[in-house]
Amino acid sequence: MPEMNMVDAIHDALTIAMEADDTVMILGEDVGANGGVFRATDGLQAKFGEDRVVDAPLAEGVIAGAAVGLAIAGMTPIAEIQFLGFAHQAYHQIADQVARYRSRSQGRFNLPIVIRSPFGGGVRAPELHSDALEAQFVHCPGLKVVCPATAHDAKGLLLASIADPDPVLFLEPLRGYRLVTDEVPEDAYTVEIGKARVVRTGTDITLIGWSAGVFLAEKAADVLAKDGISAGVVDIRTLAPLDIDTIVAEVSATGRAVIVQEAAMTCGFGAEVATTLAAEAFFSLESPITRVGAPDAPYPLPGLEKMYIPDVAAVVAGAKVAMEAV
Amino acid sequence: MTVDPDTLAYPVEPAPEPIRLLGPDGRLVDGAEPTLTVEQVVAAYKLMWLSRRIDERAFNLQRQGRLGTFSPTRGQEASVLGSGLALRPGTDWLVPQYRELTAMLYHDQPIDLWFAYWMGHMQGSATPDTLRILPTQIALAAQLPHAVGLAWGRKIQGFDEVVITYFGDGASSEGDFHEALNLAGVTKAPVIFLLQNNGWAISTPRSKQSAATSFAARGPGYGMPGVVVDGNDLLAVYEVSKRAAQRARDGLGPTLIESMTYRLGPHNTADDSVRYMDADELERRELEDPVTRVRLYLDSHDAWNDDDEEALAAEHKTIIDEAVAAAEAHQPEPERLFDHVFAEPTHRLADQRTQVLTNARGGIHA
């Protein structure tokens, strides 16, 4: 099985989807001749034509909004928002239109839209390029939010998202694009939306993350192992819908949970996971649930980035807090 | 080199005279050659009255607590119907805001579902698949990007279809208006932007909405024609819209039409327009009533009389009585909360559905 990095896996999924279905089209900023600023759509315009890989005007609102109309027209639009930090320019379309359209039309108009966007920090990008805003979109009923952490899952979840009859916000970890490499089958396959992945099992504590948070959790588990702490790792993979059964089962087995999010702490998706565990795994818990996240401050300029987003040491420290609690 | 001070002079072009075929007196202006037959105008006149009577009934029902907040179309019947007539029901697409009842009727909107929607029944949102009308849009101008995507997507697939979308002078200040027209220009989407300049955005007058002398003048800025039409002239709105639709079908792309009309009354049933509308101005505008104008035109052709008028009123009463009865027969269907969020409900949603439908403990618990 070939090894592939995440951006190549995404490119592979897009190619497969476009070859299989003429209605699949891509629109976004710089996705055409430039192949996307991260090359996720490299060469696709040359291969599939300017009607199917469209360099949109620089306006996120109409990229998301036109996708609504394209979907009603019978197309399967894959919209790219160049960085999630710019998605607020389209938030009214995503939250109020894309997510609600099936309900508003009482099932007549479903929108098989995928909105792809890289998110998260760690690459010394300019302001507003690095924000982890995922929780804001999970709070939009009608929208699925998918956050792969491996190249394998990126391909399989993207193909599943494109095939899904409902809109999916597909978030890609910016710093994992070329950093993350793993085995990716050459053929088409899907990874089920709504299923978490147990990365490794542990007996003392469970580290829970998604997207780049999983990178940290895995490394933290290695560090903890050297200290004699057996840490399991769960990759949530899809925030909406959330695979409650898997996280509850894993945390019930260890009795302790650390949730890793890259976003500012308050009202992040970690809060939803923690509340769910508090309700569903309460009698298995041996210590308070711990969250690791960024300060409740705006994402800084790159000079302070390392102090802002959680790192491996922060996850290890969080795990030790949980282990030392009564 | 120096910059000539005049280089920065702002060229204030006066607003163009609206295109008009039919004057307020019901007479054709010199040189007017309407293509609508008298029979078609009779049919349109009936729809204008049906629309107005539905408005009146809905207003009364709201006052009785039997219908929620809604926005009457009163005064804008020619503006919306003249444009709606230029498109083919069941083939072309209507992308409404919320004040286009007359056009929706021409495009086969079931009246009972219209009442049901404004009564607050989700059943009113479940329109038949044959209806080429997108859902009523409350967020101003948010439907414009949808209209562009729809028109563009149908064109890509080789369909010969036109999309018309409606919005007001107020909505034209929203970012979605500008983003949508820009994309439509670039993609040459077969879409008509029907800007109903009715003078008001709730209480904000047109003069405070934009410093530009004309909204239509924005068209060329996005690579499309902008045209101003007398929005209270059914015949003129039809001719201009028909031309725009033909242009779209010919592959020439979008058109911006500024339809100069007037909102003869409050923004909606919750609004008190006496607070900001000048009574004399409203009285003057009532004299330009678009329905009266068509009646005068038909009178001049001996195509309509008071007996017809009386018979039509009776016919409409029956139609509306039946529609209201059907709409009021709807009971709340709580499963509609859950059944159309996703194709398949998530586990959590399914659990919440059970909780609500059985109401075992009261409320939702996680």
List keywords for this structure.
heterodimer; A: 326 residues; alpha/beta; 7-stranded mixed beta sheet; 5-stranded mixed beta sheet; 12 helices; 14 strands; 36% helix; B: 366 residues; 5-stranded parallel beta sheet; two-stranded antiparallel sheet; 7 strands; 41% helix; globular
Written description of the protein model:
The complex is a heterodimer of chains A (326) and B (366). With 326 residues, chain A is an alpha/beta fold. Chain A is 36% helix and 20% strand. In chain A, the strands form three sheets. Chain A has a seven-stranded mixed sheet with strand order 3-2-4-5-7-6-12, with helices on both faces. A five-stranded mixed sheet of chain A has the order 9-11-10-13-14, sandwiched between helices. Chain A has a two-stranded antiparallel ribbon with strand order 1-8. In chain A, strand 13, helix 10 and strand 14 form a beta-alpha-beta unit. The radius of gyration of chain A is 19 Å and the shape is globular. The mean pLDDT of chain A is 97. Chain B has 366 residues and is α/β, with parallel strands linked by helices. In chain B, the strands form two sheets. Chain B has a five-stranded parallel sheet, with helices on both faces. A two-stranded antiparallel ribbon of chain B has the order 4-5. Chain B is built from twelve helices and seven strands. Chain B is globular. In chain B, strand 6, helix 8 and strand 7 form a beta-alpha-beta unit. Chains A and B meet through helix 3, helix 4, helix 5 and helix 10 of A and helix 5, helix 6 and helix 12 of B.
Oligomer: heterodimer
Number of strands of chain A: 14
Radius of gyration of chain B: 22 Å
General shape of chain B? globular
First-residue to last-residue Cα separation of chain A: 46 Å
Query: Which class do the helix and strand fractions of chain B yield?
Result: alpha/beta
Radius of gyration of chain A: 19 Å
Biggest β-sheet strands, sense, barrel of chain A: 7 strands, mixed
Helix-strand sequence of chain B: HHEHHHEHEEEHEHEHHHH
Identify low-pLDDT runs of chain A: none
Number of helices of chain B: 12
Helix content of chain B: 40-55%
Helix- and strand-based class of chain A?
alpha/beta
Largest interface: chains, residues each: A-B, 51 and 42 residues
Count of individual helical segments of chain A: 12
